[in-house]
Prior knowledge:
It is a single chain. This protein is α+β, with helices and mostly antiparallel strands. The chain folds into four domains: 26-126, Phosphorylase Kinase, domain 1, CATH 3.30.200.20; 131-325, Transferase(Phosphotransferase) domain 1 (Transferase(Phosphotransferase), domain 1); 363-474, no CATH class; 484-689, paralog of FGE (formylglycine-generating enzyme) (Alpha-Beta Complex). 24% of the residues lie in helices and 20% in strands. The protein is built from 17 helices and 29 strands. It has a six-stranded antiparallel sheet with strand order 1-2-3-4-6-5, with helices on one face. Strands 17-14-21-20 form a four-stranded mixed sheet, with no helix packed on it.
Amino acid sequence: MPLATPHFPNASPEPVPQSGPHSASDSDIFSLDPTIRSRRVTPRKFSHYELLEPIGEGQFGTVWRAKDQRLNRIVALKLPHLADFDERRRTLFLREARAAAGLEHPNIVQVHGVDQDGDQPAIISQFIEGQTLFQLLQDDRPSFKESARILSTVAAAVHHAHEAGVIHRDLKPSNILMDSEGQPHVSDFGLAKWSGDQAMLTNPGIVLGTPAYMSPEQARGDSHLVDRRSDVYSLGVLLYELLTGKPPFEGNSTLLLHQIQSQDPRAPRSHDKTIPLDLETICLKCLAKSPAERYATAQELAEDLRRFLANEPISARPISFVERYARWTRRNPAVAALVAVSILSSITAIGLGASLFGAADPNPQVVAALAVPKPVQPVIVSLNTEPEGATVVFYPLDDSTGEPLISQAIRPTEKSPVKLPLIPGDYLVVTALPDGRFHEVYRHVPRDIFAMSMYYPHRYWEVAGNSVSLFPVTIPPRDPEPNMSLLADRRSAKDTLKPPAVSAFLMDRQEVTIGKFIPKFNNALPPSLRHRPELLQSPDLPITGLFLDEAMTFAEGSGKRLPTAMEYEFAATNGWTTRFPWGDSEPPAEAWQLTANYKLFDKTPTESPVFGLFSNASEFVFFSGRHPPHESVSDFLTLDREVLIPIVRGGPASPTTDTAELKQQGARWQLNSPRTFLSEQVGFRCVKSKSPRL
C-alpha cells in the first residue's frame, strides 16, 4: 500500500538557513522533496532489490519503497542522483549509515546496511508503514497526553543514541516516523555528530540543521561543539509544536537564527490556556538558551514526561520572571548596561541626580517649562494570573505618596484573565485565589503603549493591537514566613490625631542578604552588581548597590513586595509612637559599618523583633512620585516620559556630618533618588500584607 507521506525524508518544508559561504544544511547535502509520488511506476531493479515506488524525492536523491528479493521483505532504499556524485558527496551520503550502524533501539529506524550496483551506492533501512510526525501535525494534532507519550518515547530513543556517542543534530517532525500503531521512530542521522565522524561536517562556523529546530549553539555556528543538550533543545521544539501547532520561532532563516540566539519563546499557554502547566514547564526547560539550564540528558526529559503521564510531580520547576530577567541580562549585558547608564545620564542631565545624603530638587521653572502635558486617554489592559481564576483588584497609586488609593479601587467583574480600560499610571494589583493564596504586585500602564518597556515585571508590557498585555502575576503557595514579623495598627479608631491606619502586614526581620538574593537570579549577579564579584564571598551581608527595579523584581519573585514609605515609618516608630524603632532613647555609640549581624540595640519591641530599621543599611521603599523629563529625551530613555523617584529610608551605614540631623529625624529621614540610583549603603527588605486587600 503506498504511503501517505514520504517514509524516509531528509528534509521537510521547514526553512533552511542561508547564512553565507560558511553555512551548510541538509538541503544542500541530502534534501528530499516531500512531494508524494502516488502514481505507480514501472518496477526496476537495484542489485537484488525491486524498486516498487518512490516515496520521497529531492535535489540529492530518491527514497524508494523496495523489496529485498533475497530476504523477501520490504525495505526503504535511498539512492543518490549520480550527477556530480564525487568522492566527497559519496562520503557525506554514507555518513548516515555509519552514524546509525551501531544503534539498536525499537524506536530508531534501523539501518540494515549499504549496497552497491555499479557506481551507485544505496542505504538500506527498515521500512516504517505509516506517516511522518510532520504529516500527523498537519492532519490532526495529538492530545496533550498523547503528545507527552510521543515525546517521551522519542527522547528515550535519542538518549540511546547519545549513550552510543551519536548526537542527531537534525531532530524535526519530518525525521520522526509514526508507524501504524502510533509509535514514533527516529530517522535520518545524516547530520549526526559521532566519534567516528570523518566527513568534515563539524568545522567551526558551519550552521548545520533546520533553523526552526536548531539549538542556540547550532545557530551560532558551533555545531562542532554541541553535545546531547543540543538535541534536548530540539526535542523541546518538537514538544512546543505538538502542544501549540507551531514551532516557537517563525520567519525567514536569518530572523530565525537571530531569534533562537537572543529571544525567549512565548510560553505555550499564551497560545492555548488548556495546555497543562507541567507540560509548559517541561517544554520551556528544554528551550533554555544556556545548555546548563536544560535537562542534562534526554533520559531526564523522558522521565519527567512519564511523571506527567502518571500524574506524579515533575522535577522541573516553572521559570520565574526573576530568572527570566536574569537570563535576559546575561544574554544582553551591553543592552542592560546601556539602558541603565542612559537613564541615569538623562536623569542627571535634567537636574535629578542625587547623592546619598541629599537630592537636588529640580528647578520648578525648568520643570514647568519642559513639561509637555498630554491628554490622558484610557488604555485597554489585559492581565492574567498563574493559576487562572483569581479575583483581581487594581488600586491606582497616589502620585505624591505612592500609597494605594483604596477608595478608588477598580474591580473587574470577571476572574483572571481580565481585560479592562485603565488610566495610564502605576497600580498596586491585588490577586487572590479561592483557596486563600494571594499576591500583591505593582504594574505600570503606559501613556504611550509603543514606548519601550523594561524587562522587569512591574515595568513590562506587550502591545497587542491597540491594547497592552501586562506581565502575568504568579500567585505563590501559602508557605510559612518564619523570618517575618507581624505588624498591625492597634490604635483606637477614635484617635484622629495620628496618621491614617495601616493595614496589618508582615515585614522581614532583617535586610535581604546576598545569600538570599543571588539564588533568585540563578546564582548570577544582576547588571548593577557585575562589577562587584567579591559579593559572592559574603552571603550573610545585606545586599546593597542595586537598582530599585532589581529589588522590586526580587520581592515579587519571593511572593512579597517592597514596603511603602508609610509602612516602613510605621514599623520604625512603633505605630508613630516613638522616635526610633527601640523607643525614644538616643542610639548607642556603636559602630555603624555594614554588618551581617543583628544590631541588637536597633530592634522593635514586638514579640518577633525587626532589626536594623534605623542602622546598618539604608533601605529602598516604594514610592511613585514623578518628574516630567525634557521633551528632547526620548521615550526609550525615560520609560513612558516619566521618571520614577524612589525613596530611601533608615539610617546610613556610615555617618557623616549629618549624623545629628539623622538622629533627630530617626526613621523619618529619607532620600529622594533617581530610579537608577546606586549606593553600596542602600539595600532593602520585603513585606507582605497579612491578608489580601480586596
